[in-house]
């Protein structure tokens, strides 16, 4: 069977990353890729994952062991290779142009296929463990769905985690583990959604887990600071509306208020 080593799917999809300490009390997922992982993936299966062709996986055993060198699972491959028509957030014209330009540069080398909810559902039916399985950077499928604006997939993953909750031992449930999962940079799915200005996903995540607003990443960026710094005032308003006392700290002693002053967002002040 012909195999191909797959280059990193993260190099073109990573958001501007951060680094330093986290104020989060939540722990990273206690789930690790299997030790007998496959670090090169069959070309046919890789293409099937990109296109969302489940037929190629019907007779595949141990699907959780099919990993790229960066430990991307079949779900990671699909979600980083597909697109969703973005929701229309009422942003200033120049900000819309900036976001579109940055996305064009970030994803220009990747041919985008439509995301397939059915494929994600079928893969999880076959191996539900993929729901919580992170790649080498600690990114779960929820992180990637939030980054790429797949709002329907975000909903699907959360609902699947709620069902899984009934089947696991007592303690923190699958839903909370999924929502609070952090990457190696301590980014949650909420950080990813804000960084890429996916308002609908921000709303979904805050409705499910308001406490996400209090988690800072390694760069000490809280969700409120991150959205204020980037001038995403609709997201700032949503956080303030949904969470009574959200964390507002940022790096170097700055706060969301400092960021608003610098950006001239007088309405926020």
Automatic annotation (TrEMBL):
It is found in: Cell membrane. The keyword Protein transport does not apply. InterPro entries: Ankyrin_rpt, Ankyrin_rpt-contain_sf. It comes from the Eukaryota. One of its GO terms (cellular component) is plasma membrane. Residues 7-30 have a biased composition (Low complexity). Its main location: membrane. Residues 1-33 are annotated as: Disordered. This is Uncharacterized protein. The lineage of its organism: Eukaryota, Viridiplantae, Streptophyta, Embryophyta, Tracheophyta. It is a peripheral membrane protein. Keywords: ANK repeat. ANK repeats lie at residues 137-160, 185-217, 252-269. It comes from Arachis hypogaea (Peanut).
């Amino acid at each position: 069977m012909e195999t191909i080593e797959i280059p990193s799917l993260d190099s073109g999809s990573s958001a501007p990353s951060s680094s330093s300490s986290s104020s989060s009390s939540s722990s990273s997922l206690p789930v690790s890729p299997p030790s007998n992982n496959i670090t090169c993936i069959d070309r046919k299966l890789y293409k099937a994952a990109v296109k969302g062709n489940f037929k190629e996986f019907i007779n595949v055993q141990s699907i959780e062991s099919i990993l790229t060198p960066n430990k991307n699972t079949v779900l990671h491959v699909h979600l980083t290779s597909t697109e969703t028509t973005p929701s229309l957030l009422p942003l200033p014209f120049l900000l819309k142009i900036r976001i579109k330009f940055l996305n064009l540069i970030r994803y220009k080398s990747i041919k985008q296929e439509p995301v397939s909810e059915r494929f994600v559902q079928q893969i999880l039916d076959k191996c539900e463990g993929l729901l919580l399985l992170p790649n080498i950077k600690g990114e779960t499928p929820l992180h990637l769905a939030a980054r790429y604006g797949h709002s329907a997939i975000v909903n699907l993953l959360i609902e699947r985690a709620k069902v899984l909750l009934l089947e696991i031992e007592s303690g923190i449930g699958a839903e909370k583990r999924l929502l609070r999962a952090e990457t190696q940079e301590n980014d949650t799915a909420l950080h990813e959604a804000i960084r890429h200005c996916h308002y609908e996903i921000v709303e979904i995540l805050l409705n499910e887990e308001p406490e996400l607003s209090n988690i800072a990443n390694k760069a000490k960026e809280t969700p409120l600071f991150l959205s204020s710094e980037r001038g995403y005032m609709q997201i700032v308003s949503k956080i303030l509306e949904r969470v009574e006392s959200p964390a507002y700290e940022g790096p170097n002693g700055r706060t969301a208020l400092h960021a608003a002053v610098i950006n001239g967002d007088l309405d926020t002040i």
